[in-house]
């Protein structure tokens, strides 16, 4: 078993170091190999996703990814920007199914900006389609408008699109996930305005007929954004497109206390997976040793479960995370009065110790 370790930029290197520490402490037999990705790879090799990094990722059984990006690269041509590395990995490996579980651990009920009763016991699963939508649709670009409100003016455009097979396969992922949970799927769309999402809704409904035991609810994305903070526990599995899933998962992260708590798994059809926290490289706190490594450590647990067939080890990590939270240890993002503030490495060390 081989794990490709791609720390990336900013806090990516700090949080991945802690997840690696935890994986090594498990004493399982897998090989880990690291490579540069994102801005770090651009600086060293002139490209955010060098051939050698892509090759390592393709050959690995699983990929542990940190985060990419920094404001200093924002002026580069788009194909050279760090974010293209993660988009390129998702596309090249066909990682279409993105699982972003938002679980509010008992000990963190007070860390959320929402009232405790709204989020206590929260456990929802956002399933985000990850290789289609406006993120990858062509054509896109800039040009001089020949029509619209301002003919002759400069304009920019992107293309939102989904094909039937793309919607069908993510629908099956969602219904099958719901079967193992409370048998309820909320499909989030914008069918009242966008043809792409009317099609999404139609195909979801069709696939749903193959799962009569699962309740399917449709919701417009604007309403979903509101309901997520009004009554988050009314959701169980949420399935949506690439862009809406990006936005709603960041929103859902605050239900758990912090974006530093939200792990993710991105799987392809052969269960090869990329595992990364849902957050970014956090340039505002990078290099300070204060980032929360738990989303990355929990992503490593998802990796053991989904790609490496090590359920017991995954549960050991999850139990260790709960234990350190119960001990009152908190990084700054989840700190509240009466708890103990720790840095990134101290949190990683505590999880290792709690593995027992
Ligand atoms: N998958 C990825 O690699 C990924 C994901 C999102 C954003 N990005 C990139 O990251 C850069 C920064 O983007 P952004 O600021 O919009 O989003 P971000 O997620 O990096 O940060 C948003 C806020 O959350 C905080 N935060 C994030 N992770 C944290 C953690 N583990 N512990 C404590 N606090 C944490 C940050 O300090 C910041 O205040 C951009 O270049 C963006 O493109 C990359
Ligand atoms: C960095 C960016 C390309 C990425 C996305 O938009 O998918 C990030 O926000 C995420 O959520 O993983
Ligand atoms: Mg995002």
TrEMBL record:
Any one GO molecular function term: 3-isopropylmalate dehydrogenase activity
Top enzyme category: oxidoreductase
Protein name: 3-isopropylmalate dehydrogenase
Cellular component terms per the entry's GO annotation: cytosol
Subunit (UniProt): Homodimer.
Functional note: Catalyzes the oxidation of 3-carboxy-2-hydroxy-4-methylpentanoate (3-isopropylmalate) to 3-carboxy-4-methyl-2-oxopentanoate. The product decarboxylates to 4-methyl-2 oxopentanoate.
Positions contributing to substrate binding: 90, 100, 128, 222
EC number: 1.1.1.85
PANTHER family, per the entry: 3-ISOPROPYLMALATE DEHYDROGENASE (PTHR42979:SF1)
Substrates-to-products reaction catalysed: (2R,3S)-3-isopropylmalate + NAD(+) = 4-methyl-2-oxopentanoate + CO2 + NADH
Record: residues binding NAD(+): 280-292
UniProt lineage: Bacteria, Pseudomonadati, Pseudomonadota, Betaproteobacteria, Burkholderiales
InterPro entries (alphabetical): IsoCit/isopropylmalate_DH_CS, IsoPropMal-DH-like_dom, Isopropylmalate_DH
Binding site for Mg(2+): 222, 246, 250
UniProt-annotated site: Important for catalysis, residues: 135, 190
Record note on cofactor: Binds 1 Mg(2+) or Mn(2+) ion per subunit.
HAMAP family the record matches: LeuB_type1
Places the protein is found: Cytoplasm
The keyword NAD appears for this protein: yes
Keywords: Amino-acid biosynthesis, Branched-chain amino acid biosynthesis, Cytoplasm, Leucine biosynthesis, Magnesium, Manganese, Metal-binding, NAD, Oxidoreductase
SMART domains: Iso_dh
A GO biological-process term: L-leucine biosynthetic process
């Amino acid at each position: 078993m081989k794990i490709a370790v791609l720390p990336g930029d900013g806090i990516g290197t700090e949080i991945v170091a802690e997840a690696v520490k935890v994986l090594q402490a498990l004493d399982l037999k897998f090989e880990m190999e690291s490579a540069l990705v994102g801005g770090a790879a651009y600086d060293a090799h002139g490209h955010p996703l060098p051939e050698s990094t892509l090759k390592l990722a393709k050959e690995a059984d699983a990929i542990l990814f940190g985060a990419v990006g920094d404001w200093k690269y924002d002026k580069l041509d788009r194909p050279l920007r760090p974010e293209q590395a993660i988009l390129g990995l998702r596309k090249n490996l066909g990682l279409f199914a993105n699982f972003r579980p938002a679980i509010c651990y008992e000990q963190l009920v007070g860390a959320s900006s929402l009232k405790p009763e709204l989020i206590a016991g929260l456990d929802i699963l956002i399933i985000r389609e990850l290789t289609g939508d406006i993120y990858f649709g062509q054509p896109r670009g800039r040009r001089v408008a020949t029509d619209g409100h301002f003919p002759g003016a400069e304009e920019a455009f992107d293309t939102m699109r989904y094909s039937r097979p793309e919607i069908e396969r993510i629908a099956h992922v969602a219904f099958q996930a719901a079967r193992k949970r409370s048998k309820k799927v909320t499909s989030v769309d914008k069918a009242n305005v966008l043809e792409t999402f009317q099609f999404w809704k139609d195909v979801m409904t069709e696939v749903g007929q193959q799962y009569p035991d699962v309740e399917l609810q449709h919701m417009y994305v604007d309403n979903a954004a509101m309901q997520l903070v009004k009554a988050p526990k009314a959701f169980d599995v949420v399935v949506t497109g690439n862009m809406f899933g990006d936005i709603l998962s960041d929103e859902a992260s605050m239900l758990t206390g912090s974006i530093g708590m939200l792990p993710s798994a991105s799987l392809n059809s052969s269960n090869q997976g990329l595992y990364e926290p849902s957050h970014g490289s956090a340039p505002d706190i990078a290099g300070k040793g204060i980032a929360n490594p738990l989303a990355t450590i929990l992503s490593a647990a998802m990796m053991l479960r989904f790609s490496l067939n090590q359920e017991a080890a995954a549960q050991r990590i999850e139990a260790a995370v709960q234990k350190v939270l119960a001990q009152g240890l908190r990084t700054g993002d989840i700190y509240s009065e009466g708890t103990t503030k720790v840095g990134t490495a101290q949190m990683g060390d505590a999880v290792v110790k709690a593995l027992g």
